[in-house]
Amino acid sequence: xxxxxxxxxxxxxxIKALRNLLYDSDITVIADTSDAIWTQGNLVCPNLDxxxxxxxxxxxxxxxxxxxxxxxxxxxxxxKICADAPETETDTETETDTxxxxxxxxxxxxPDANTGIVKYPVSDAHNNGVSDGGNRIxxxxxxxxxxxxxxxxxxxxxxxAHAMHLKSKLTLTQSxxxxxxxxxITANILPATDSRITAYAKFAGEMFSIADFRAICKTEKTxxxxxxxxxxxxxxxxxxxxxxxxxxxxxxxxxxxGHISTISPVLxxxxxxxxxxxxxTIAILPRLPADYVPGRxxxxxxxxxxxxxxxxILIQDIKDEYCIPNATRINTxxxxxxxxxxxxxxxxxxxxxx
Length: 354
Description:
Strand order of the largest sheet: 6-2-1-10-11-12-13
CATH architecture of the domain at 2-75 and 148-196 and 238-351: 3-Layer(aba) Sandwich
Helix content: 25-40%
Distance between the termini: 10 Å
Order of helices and strands: EHEEEHHEHHEEEHHEHEHHEHEEH
Number of helices: 12
Strand content: 15-25%
């Protein structure tokens, strides 16, 4: 069993290539859920659901998110019929959580020494630039304070299913298992945690939702290396027993490639880093900017330090000008199926007889 901690689009491309080398039943993927939001009564989990779409053969591989050929009739009609409604203030319901209470001293939060993530409980949110109940309200809102998030019609069915499951007191892990079975998926897809956890990116002096920050990263290529990721939760996030089992029992764990802002929240869940240190771990660094030197990109420095603390093999792109000490240099490009499969072969060759 190979376990992949997904970092978004580049990880999806690598996973797609790994499926040419392994049976789906031999692949476990651990997903970040800090980008999940409740919108119009439905639960949208972009990182998690894109993995479901990939293994079910429905992923839109033009932009590597959502369902291919999906339509947006409901979303567009909802905006139309709500256009003239008066805005009102509403309270956002906070989901219940059964994990261990946070004891990290969050009344005076500071960045985690290993991940650089600042951790805020919901009770402190208003003092730290974050709004009600775990969902920061974007600048563009529907009436009644609902965040605008474009959800396709087929995708909306998955979001409704998630919401129905959670309102029936199932966990997100259980919801994902049910959906995977419905789609005929034999791979093991797991949320890193069943705790409610919401990430925000502090960049250029402003706070952004992860959805908004992803849009920034498409035009500002180094944004992910500069941003400080802040997490909001009611209780400190713990990895699930299923996630712990996948890491402990797997042949190897592959981290990335992908966004630091997607992988860091997974590594912040307890006791993820301790388990990775005991496992055979291959960590793939993002491409370094041409002007990279230590100290210039704080988020990048932190992820390099974090990976170096537990990775058995630290992979750096062969084209990077700056050389990370003890890193293995290979071509990490995934921008074509051929290159992604080449990376998959390189990674598998490092596993040897494991």
